[in-house]
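Quarterly update, task 2.4: zinc ion-bound model.
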Amino acid sequence: MKTKIAFGVLSSLLLLPTMLFADIVYQGKRVQEWPEEARPTFNNQSAGKPSFLLARTPVTQNKSHYAAPKGKIYSLTLLVDFSDQKAPVSVADVEEWLNKEGFNRDGCNGSVRDYYLDVSNGQLDLTNEVFGWYRAKHPKSWYESLQGYTGSDSLMKEVFAYFDSQVDYSRYDNDKDGTTEAINIVYAGPGQTWGQGLWPHSGWSNERRDGVRLTHHQMTDMPGKFSIYVFVHESGHMIFGWPDLYWYGDYCTMGNRANDLNPVAINDFYRADQGWIPFVDVTSNDVSLETTKPGEVCYRYKNPARPDNEGLVWSYVRNTGRNKVLKGSGLLMQHYDFSIGANSSADKLGLRIVHANAAGKSNDNVADQWPSPGSAANAFFSYSAYPEFSDDKYPAIRWYNGSKTGLKITDIGTPGETITFCIGGNCPAQESSSSTGIAFSSSSAPAVSSSSSSSSVTPPKSSSSSVQITVQKIALETTLPISDNYAPVTLDLNGSDVAKILGIKQNEIANKVKFYGVEPDGSLNSNTTGEGTGHWFDKDGKIVAWDPNGTSIVFSNMDLTTMTTKIGHMPNKVKAGDSFVVRQAVVYESKQVTFEITVKIEQKTTRISNIRSSKRGKPGNMIFNALGKPVGKRTESGEMPDLPKGIYVEMVK
Ligand SMILES: [Zn+2]
């Protein structure tokens, strides 16, 4: 019965094209999740690490439920247009759309690469290599008119065959397990009919080229206006194997199509499954007072009877940045059961939101769940409306076998930079919650990359000093190429967040705040040793004067008007792999924002996409393949070594 209701909803959905899902298509049929034999896998053991190309070194490998690639992943994008629908943008435009840092055309919040760098905490660097445009044999209308997805399959075969002379497909088998991870076909013009023709989807093929199987691909439309939702969503199916989250809402990009330009983040459960953020495991014996930042960790409470399959997970979700489209903030609780294939019917979901305002899973109105639940403020647990989760309060929320969960969360606080809550229902009195004079509420929660993530973070006690200052830390990270002339990189300091914390407008920052360098022990230093509002630091982050023969090594010159900073280094003092942490702060009245900037020194590299046009170079420069493996050196006369077609990276000696 439930299913019938659901399909009623589904057909009315056809009238709302912007809400439509892009599908997974396997052997010509729409499926909600890849069947077992077709699931993407990733062999993390043989991936191209350690390599200077990796944005970050992978943290401790965890056993992920879904494919979990890490580091730099090369993805192939093939462009195709038609006699009745010509290429609306150039190859360079597409390269920017997919890869360029800070891409913002037509209002996009970054490129596809930016999106995955953000949601993965910098652990997945999805880089697309673009070839095209190929003119298809038939007009677009021909492919669109064929039944089901046969038009797509036909186009896919054509495109793969055409590009074989230019592309080495084996390059996109990043983990060298015999199958490629990511091949994208982007076609000119808009998607037309849901479930037919070239409608965007993640697909499957039996093609084999250049010694590898091209199993998974995805097809995305390019109507001429840029947006990143479809590409990001289809990559979710194709690379990780995540299912479509029907009956779920806007709370994940694998759920509803909430926003095309600024698609919502991947939900924190999937993020933790990838190892992008740590899980913090909680049992029914635990009692603790927690403080957590948005998207920082995922709390997990496993069903003791089925620990490998079922559990409740929750995290602090705040409607800013990638989650801006969400209508509320607070603890968002989810119930997962890996034994359920995807989200195929409304009352049995592989992953569902436990709505804070709902009586329980079966009592959630189907219409509130899909297709247009969007998101709601009262889905979140928070102080104002739903400060507690327990079996008593939520009698209908049970494990799927009907038994009580035993989980108790109380004293859920107000969403701010952090949120607090009590696990186990018997927390020690919260000193800071009732007192207005928080002497030193440091929000320096454990760094996300530290997998130890202490599960109980209490604010340090007040010192006897009467100065009441609240310190918020903003952790930033940048790579800095080696330079012999102080060439800086520019880093965004999140001006709007800073303004919010200080309680002033962003354009008031430059006039109102005091600016400091912060010594490693946290003390403020009002001397500026860099340019303008800038500092030089030594290798330990101590503020020092500029001195090419001294200890000064890294500078950060802030611009309070644009809220950016230029980071650079002293020539001849750094080597690839060096890492430094420097700190600067702005203070307004009783509020301080400390920027903690991790600077990672990177070897200068050049990307070579066409061997013939890069004939000359510095003799002896090392040449690496896409996985960061050395494949040769430039000869004494500066020529490239003899290599097959493809993309390489040259490391400047
Ligand atoms: Zn989908």
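Highlight for this quarter: Residues 21-24, 233, 237, 244 surround zinc ion (CB under 6 Å).
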